[in-house]
Amino acid sequence: MKALLLLLSTSLFMTSSWALAHKKTQPKPVIVSALPVLHALNQSLLESTPVAVKYLPAKRLPVSRISNWLKHKSQPAIAKLEPVTALITVESVWPEYALLKHMRSNNIAVIEIDAATEILAGGAQIRLSEADLEGQTAFWMAPDNLIVMSQIIARDMLRVWPRYAAQIKENQQSLQQAIRGYALKLDQLLLEHDIAEICLESDRLMPLAQATYLPVETSNCATESLKIIAFSKKQLMHKGQWQVDSLNKPIKGNLHDWLSVNLQRLEQAL
Predict the structure, then answer these.
(1) In this structure, which of 189, 194, 198, 240 has its CB flanked by the most CB atoms within 10 Å?
(2) Structural domains in the chain?
(3) Burial 120-146 (b: 16+ CB within 10 A, else e)
(4) 87: left (phi over 0), alpha (psi -120 to 50) or beta
């Protein structure tokens, strides 16, 4: 009897030890991206999950310089990464920002999620203009596009990490509600202050201007029009000028914070 108990105890100990060792050796899930907006979406959708969210380029680089960095300087950064489970891209609309071809040499099993066009028959896709396709505009500044991107990414994340489905769904619903609230508040503020025209400093922000459904001018703007310009720490705030953070570089907070800050700057401008 004692021998049997000893055998059972030894077996249980070995099983527990194996399980503990196996748990310790299990790699942490990793997701990577190379555009600030995609990194911010990953952070928001995977909040409170164990998935590690990584951003590949140097954070000082603006969007306009990332494609060149990917082509010529990305390999050392990729080589330092722990095994990556999935990557997020917008390769279907911006092929010069393709990430998969750079990652496959280090990890043939990496899963690609395209946030602009769902890789699925009849899948969702964002709405784009010719300028968007040429990489000249921040197409994610249109709230509808940002919602679609979050939905595409979340649906694929559910397939990759079904064990975290409840949290991912909760995060996506919260983010979608925040984006819709932002769009509604934007419309309300423009209506309350009788804004009848949008004046643009740069075509890069055209998707945001068009989302207001107001006339948009890039020159000869009326005095009472609202001027939308890119945010700069060096630029002072002025009435009539909405300084917008277009996610040209990674942000410190999450997308909820980013939406709130942009609305606060609009209120200050009006």
Answers:
(1) 198
(2) 27-178 (3.40.50.1980), 194-269 (no CATH)
(3) eeeeebbebeeebeebebbbbbbbebb
(4) beta
Q: What CA–CA distances, in Å, run from 34 to 78, 106, 249?
A: 11, 16, 10
What secondary structure letter does DSSP report for 182? Answer: H
Residue 161 is predicted with a pLDDT of 97
User: Which ranges of 73-205 does DSSP label H, i.e. alpha helix?
Assistant: 75-80, 100-103, 130-133, 143-160, 165-192
**Spatial distance between the Cα atoms of 149 and 155, rounded to a whole number of angstroms:** 10
Q: Report the pLDDT averaged over residues 171-188.
A: 97
250-254 long-range contacts, CB within 8 A, separation 24+: 250/36, 250/39, 250/40, 250/55, 250/59, 251/36, 251/40, 254/40, 254/43, 254/44, 254/47
Full-model pTM: 0.87
The DSSP bridge pattern shows strands 30-33 and 52-55 to be: parallel
The pLDDT, as a whole number, for residue 174 is 98
Rounded CA gap, 254 and 106, in Å? 29
pLDDT at 201: 82
216 near 210, Cβ under 8 Å?
A: yes
Residue 3 per-residue DSSP state: H
CA distance 131 to 207: 10
Identify the residue whose tokens are 């000869």: 220
Q: Tokens 């909405």 appear where?
A: 242
Task: Report H helices in 26-136.
Answer: 36-45, 63-72, 75-80, 100-103, 130-133
Lowest mean pLDDT among 56-60, 219-223, 232-236, 264-268: 232-236
Check: CB of residue 204 under 8 Å from CB of residue 137.
yes
